[in-house]
Amino acid sequence: MSTKKVAIIGTVGLPACYGGFETLVAQLATHLHQEHELTVYCSGKRYPKAQRQTHHAGARLVYLPLDANGVQSIFYDCLSILHALFYADVLLVLGVPGGILLPFVKVFTRKRIIVSIDGIEWRRSKWNRLAKWYLRLAENLAVKFSHADISDNDAIQNYTARTYSTRSRVIEYGGDHAVCQPITPAHNARYPFLSSPYAFKVCRIEPENNVAMILEAFAELPQHPFVLVGNWANSAFGQQLKAQYGGLPHLHLLDPIYDQAELDVLRGHCQVYIHGHSAGGTNPSLVEAMYLGLSIVAFGVSFNRATTEHKARYFATKEELKALIKDTSLATWQALGREMKTIAERRYKWEIIARKYSALFHNPSGARRKGGLRAQISLLGQDDLLQHELGHYASPSMFYEEEL
């Protein structure tokens, strides 16, 4: 097959130091740079000039003087799309802020457009009404005017089928870059909780991740240490939670850890991994935890159930979470961890993920099919889908809004 010039748009950039999309791009570059010419757009706001590279993992890097997140992401994505029109065969657009330009790209150019909508972004609680309106419009345009749209989860595929009558291609995230690391004396000195069983969670400190509910539950379980790694200082919400719960001796509220090996020491040795996300699709931190063979307790939305094939343990309230932590035996946790590892090894390897993306680069138009809802239902039952669409799984905190 011929080499394609692929522009990857919508992430903070490389080297990866932010989130799931950045990890995805790093893995695509590693696995595909010898068969495709990859260009990755990077936020100049996140990479000081002294640290910038021209290439990373075989991909060419282009820096733009804008932030990849927040309101600037609209202009960042649009500028990336316009720049890519001068050379690229394929535009891989990760996220929807630049979706408003895609109708013009499809109508007036011969470029092939592949879009990953990154969950249902407009539903995230951090956006105000104006931002939600724009993101929903951008999502609509991105799906309708792309040659292929990617869902990272069966539940997202079902959502796009119901909403846009298209069948997106399901391509999840890989997790095999996460490797359990040995505990050294230095780790024990820095993190004394490593010497006894503990629960663990890593996430952005946002209401939709049910951080407040989870902390409240563990605050009432003093015999069960809990470690939560997150960006506490980035919002008043996070600062308030850390001030409220940080003084409890069995709660360990740690600042962000960007070193993969150090993070894998902490989560790799936990007794149970708590996943509280209530929005999104296949969440990278969940997939990584599964690949590490951790027992999973997840918030019971359809996305998390699909990722874990309905075989994890699920909660919807503080009391349900407390009961799971108190009443589940060690043998049950160990068996659950083995089951999560088996699923991850079958579904969440980066080599498999990269092959799927490469096939789309060669033939994006062949990926999309129209069809009725009946043909689209996959792992989830209709009742589960309906509950999700009506918001029955939504946390009360999902109505929290910020200024745009």
TrEMBL record:
The protein in question is named Glycosyltransferase
Tell me which species this is from.
Answer: Hymenobacter glaciei
User: Per the database record, which ranges form the DUF1972 domain?
Assistant: 4-176
Q: Where is the Glycosyl transferase family domain?
A: 196-319
Q: Which UniProt keywords apply?
A: Membrane, Transmembrane, Transmembrane helix
The portions of this protein that span the membrane are 84-105
